[in-house]
Amino acid sequence: MYVCLCHGISDKKIKKLVIEEGISDIRGIKKCTALGSQCGKCVRPAKEIIDETLSTQFRQAS
């Protein structure tokens, strides 16, 4: 699913950055992508995806 339609950034891309690069916040995602740089509607859904991914990783590690 595309999270950022303006720049074509998908939920898979965000999850991959969180898992493989250890990014844990929107600021980190913005450094690697153009997320939120145009209309900004993607920031909240992206934050939710980051939080869900981190939560899943934490549960798997426990």
UniProtKB/TrEMBL annotation:
UniProt-listed InterPro entries: BFD-associated_ferredoxin, BFD-like_2Fe2S-bd_dom, BFD-like_2Fe2S-bd_dom_sf
GO molecular function: 2 iron, 2 sulfur cluster binding; metal ion binding
Pfam families with a match to the protein in the record: Fer2_BFD
Cofactor(s) required, per the database record: [2Fe-2S] cluster
UniProt keyword annotations, A-Z: 2Fe-2S, Electron transport, Iron, Iron-sulfur, Metal-binding, Transport
Domain BFD-like [2Fe-2S]-binding, chain residue ranges per copy: 2-52
Family statement drawn from the similarity comment of this UniProt entry: Belongs to the Bfd family.
Database matches in PANTHER family: BACTERIOFERRITIN-ASSOCIATED FERREDOXIN
Name of the protein in question: Bacterioferritin-associated ferredoxin
Lineage start: Bacteria, Pseudomonadati, Pseudomonadota, Gammaproteobacteria, Vibrionales
